[in-house]
Design goal:
The protein is 46% helix and 14% strand. By secondary structure, it is of the alpha+beta class. It folds into three domains: 7-97, Acyl-CoA dehydrogenase/oxidase, N-terminal domain (Butyryl-Coa Dehydrogenase, subunit A, domain 1, Orthogonal Bundle); 124-238, Butyryl-CoA Dehydrogenase, subunit A, domain 2 (Beta Barrel), CATH 2.40.110.10; 241-380, Butyryl-CoA Dehydrogenase, subunit A, domain 3, CATH 1.20.140.10. It has a four-stranded mixed β-sheet with strand order 1-4-5-8. A hairpin with a 2-residue loop joins strand 9 (270-271) and strand 10. Helix 4 packs antiparallel against helix 9. The longest helix has 29 residues, at 280-308. It is globular and about 80 Å long. It binds flavin-adenine dinucleotide (FAD).
Amino acid sequence: MDFELSDEQRDIRDTVRAFVTKEILPLEEDFLRLVRDGGARLPRDEERRLRAKARQFGFWGLSTPEEYGGMALPAVTQSLIHAELAKSCVPFRFGGEADNILYGADAAQQEEYLKPTIEGERLGCFALTEPGAGSDAGAISTYARRDGDDWLINGEKTFISNGHEADYAIVIALTDRDKGAHHGATAFLVDREAGWTSSPISTMGSWHLPASLTFDDVRVPADKVLGEVGGGFQLAMRWVGKGRYVISAQCVGIAERCLRMAVDYAGLRETFGRKIGQNQAIQWMIADSETELEAARWLALRAAWDVDRGADARHASAMAKLFCTAMVGRVVDRALQIHGGMGYTKELPLEGWYRAIRAMRIFEGTDEVQRLILSRDLLRGHTRIGGHLA
Ligand SMILES: Cc1cc2nc3c(=O)[nH]c(=O)nc-3n(C[C@H](O)[C@H](O)[C@H](O)COP(=O)(O)OP(=O)(O)OC[C@H]3O[C@@H](n4cnc5c(N)ncnc54)[C@H](O)[C@@H]3O)c2cc1C
């Protein structure tokens, strides 16, 4: 059994680590100042400058197929990269990516949506969730009815990431109520100019505010159907499933940074005449964090490995997301506790992470939905106890 990274994986990981250390970490202080003044992201110019620099390093389109100019990296390598990027609280992603389901777009749609999205000229959002349909996505009621050659969309979507900034939305709407969402929903590409409106939703984490979207007789031509009429739910599930190993890897990165901060602070801060790290209470928090982090790391990489070997990755991804998102909550909490009052301030990234990571246990499938997947797989005999080695 070989738990080593390949030379290539190590090289790529180390290059990203160097990029984060040299280019991103030095921006943290300014970013935290910006957050204290009510900001939520890097200034656009700064973001563009960083993306251009990353592109010079060769980092652009991590998951994007080579024919679109991307790197088409294996999922394990992508996970290593996402973990490195997550070590800074500065919200930054490499450019050159688009929603996975856009690759199924026809040639004209690829020119209008996919390619400009990859190039960073357009920004899309994915709109499935509604006020009455979250975990139970099959309960959506947004309806698109035929009107001549067009479709008229009516309904409300909620908690849509990038929904207030996007210039187009991928909207999942019922097109055949009799068939229900599983066979009677369709995905549409809907430009903001078509007439939908958005309003941001204030949340606990201030960095990425989702939005609610309102569709009031929004007219969409027939050539804006993404994929097949009636195939929208399958596309939606493909969209939802793709990110679970990425979220898990991000949790690993955040937890690694928090544990590093906790260990450093425990070796510096003195109370009652000695370092706080000399107290067993602090040592146990560090030990538990290290152990849980290691377990999470392997679950996250295992899920990505399943993707790379073409196996059905849903079970491993559900385990990884369930465990990693809870693990990072505990590790951030302990790191914050070890920092005492300083941990609670906005001078350090800990309190921001404490709030922001909470959403990870909700979006792209709640904890309970992951548990549903896992128990259902076992109870139906789809998965054997013992995992890959069974
Ligand atoms: C920051 C953020 C960003 C988001 N971005 C997007 C986006 O870009 N696009 C998009 O479409 N959606 C997005 N969402 C929506 C997200 O996917 C939903 O919030 C999530 O699926 C849960 O749905 P809900 O909020 O309606 O909760 P509900 O489904 O109402 O669930 C409420 C509670 O009941 C539990 N529960 C539900 N059913 C069961 C069951 N059968 N057994 C046991 N427990 C159950 C849930 O786990 C949860 O704890 C985002 C949400 C957030 C918070």
